[in-house]
Write a structure and sequence with these properties.
CATH topology of the largest domain: hpI Integrase, Chain A
Order of helices and strands: HHHHHHHHHHHHHHHHEEEHHHHHHH
Largest sheet: 3 strands, antiparallel
Oligomer: single chain
Strand content: under 5%
Helix content: 40-55%
Radius of gyration: 31 Å
Length: 517
């Protein structure tokens, strides 16, 4: 009986499509008002009422009439009783597809429509159907309504904010390491262009102005924006540091280009214009690669770690960050902020005989810390045997037992960043021992802790040792699924550890003061 009912529904859909009833592209369901959703549900239920009435007038088979009644009665009853929305949800999906209304099944508007349809079916179809089929009463159907024009009216006010919201929802269903950049770019675009701007009024000059203006934003705009500071206010100030050309191209121009292309494809018939970013160049005051540091030579590494200054740090009870941060950086190649934000309560462990650090922005953060992982991907960093010898696991265990939620609790957190103060202290140390150099050409400078990331990659690369398992740079020969499995599996951890142990710096690093590892 259910098969007969569904077959009948499909036939009706084919007839309506063949009749060319639908014109244009209705507005996406997530942009409908509650009143429009209720009106659509009532219309569908009344359509079912009128359809049954016509079947009775044509003396169609009792079996088919009862099948339709039971399908809708059971489906609506399941929803209204809280039992299940599966069957009615499938029917709603079929009707939305028939009416060419775009929708997202996990969206709240879809669930609202399913419930509204259940309510409407109960009043507009099930009650009169019961009277006709089982009480033998003549219940006339409601008259045909005037054509619903609400979606067409809503389509005229389709806004940039609504399209960006729908676009972000789709992207976040299958997130990648790039998703966060897309979201940040479009949040900023929406803020600067205006969320309520109708798509038909968006102009190329606004896109060009946006890309030019953001070159003057301070590099920490996102953190300040999250704290409630207005973008317009940030643009008025003369920022000490703005984004660089690579950030401009990768984090803003590229995702905006993809959004404008997709929006034109999906909403072009609703007025979204053809817009481009090609030819809009970076206008900030920074140069490509100006912050890129070189690797340290072996004599420089010896001066740093075997000199009297670092020996004094090793014996200083209060110098945990000054000692461990450069040592860990040298043997992991990790980004300094990823290290400073580690939570000793959850961001390290041991698997088999291998100790590891866990780089994960989703584990609990320390007080005042805003966790961030540049790629957005979780990875485990095995500890080199030299780090174990120097006592890092013992230090981590001591911090855990002490209840510390940061690797270096003695270092001040600045605007959610636990690295900035510690990083400046190391830069000062480089100046003290004569290794700091900010006068060399871009790519040849030595200015801070990132120098160790370049040192490990260069030292290993010169010896044919792969480092992508440590640095978080996915190699081209691995798919995203393989890459994630590699970082989470015991076998992957052992492979990275085996590669890491091949890195053997000819250094004699002094051990931390005994009892204060």
């Amino acid at each position: 009986m259910h098969y007969i009912a569904f077959t009948g529904m499909l036939d009706e859909v084919r007839q309506e499509i063949a009749g060319g009833i639908f014109r244009g592209r209705p507005l996406m369901l997530s942009m409908w008002t509650a009143e429009a959703i209720k009106a659509l549900a009532v219309r569908w239920a009344q359509d079912q009422n009128r359809r049954q009435y016509e079947m009775l007038r044509r003396f169609e088979g009792r079996d088919e009439l009862e099948a339709h009644h039971e399908v809708f009665d059971g489906a609506a009853g399941d929803v209204l009783s809280g039992y299940s929305a599966v069957t009615l949800g499938l029917i709603v999906e079929a009707k939305l597809s028939r009416d060419s209304i775009p929708y997202v099944k996990d969206d709240g508007h879809f669930r609202a429509l399913v419930f509204a349809f259940a309510e409407a079916l109960s009043l507009e179809f099930i009650d009169p159907s019961t009277k006709r089929l089982y009480e033998r009463k003549a219940v006339p159907p409601p008259p045909l309504p005037e054509p619903i024009k609400a979606p067409a009216k809503l389509a005229t006010v389709l806004t940039i904010g609504a399209i960006i919201k729908a676009y972000i929802q789709v992207k976040q269903k299958a997130p990648t390491g790039y998703t966060r950049k897309v979201v940040r770019c479009l949040e900023l675009f929406r803020e600067m262009v205006g969320a309520q701007t109708p798509v038909a009024e968006l102009r190329q000059r606004q896109v060009t102005a946006f890309l030019h203006d953001i070159c003057g934003l301070p590099s920490d705009w996102a953190t300040r924006f999250d704290q409630g500071e207005a973008v317009a206010k940030m643009l008025e100030e003369e920022a000490e540091e703005v984004m660089g050309p690579r950030t401009f191209n990768d984090n803003y121009r590229a995702p905006l280009k993809a959004f404008l292309r997709d929006a034109r494809r999906d909403y072009g018939d609703e007025g979204f214009p053809a817009l481009i970013v090609d030819g809009i160049e970076y206008t900030g005051g920074r140069k490509a690669g100006e912050d890129t540091q070189r690797d340290l030579t072996m004599p420089e590494l010896k001066r740093l770690f075997e000199g009297p200054e670092f020996a004094a740090i090793a014996q200083d009870i209060g110098a945990d960050a000054a000692y461990w941060l450069p040592v860990i950086s040298l043997f992991t190649g990790a980004r300094p902020r990823e290290l400073c934000q580690l939570n000793p309560q959850c961001d390290w462990g041991k698997e088999g005989d291998t100790f590891f650090l866990l780089v994960d922005e989703h584990t609990p953060a320390g007080k005042g810390v805003t966790k961030t992982v540049k790629t957005g991907e979780t990875r485990r960093l095995p500890l080199h045997s030299e780090l174990v010898r120097l006592g890092l696991p013992a230090y981590l265990e001591r911090m855990k037992k002490a209840g510390s939620d940061r690797l270096f609790p003695g270092v001040r957190v600045k605007k959610g960043n636990p690295y900035e103060v510690a990083g400046q202290a190391f830069t000062d140390f480089l100046r003290t021992i004569g290794l700091y150099d900010d006068t060399a050409p871009p790519g040849r400078q030595v200015k801070g802790l990132y120098v160790f990331r370049k040192t490990l990659i260069t030292y290993a690369g010169n010896r044919g040792i792969p480092t992508w398992g440590l640095t978080g740079h996915k190699p081209e020969h691995l798919t995203l699924l393989q890459w994630q499995s590699y970082h989470s599996s015991p076998a992957g951890l052992e492979l990275v550890k085996a590669d890491l142990e091949r890195i053997a710096y000819p250094l004699s690093i002094p051990q931390r003061l005994q009892g204060n590892c």
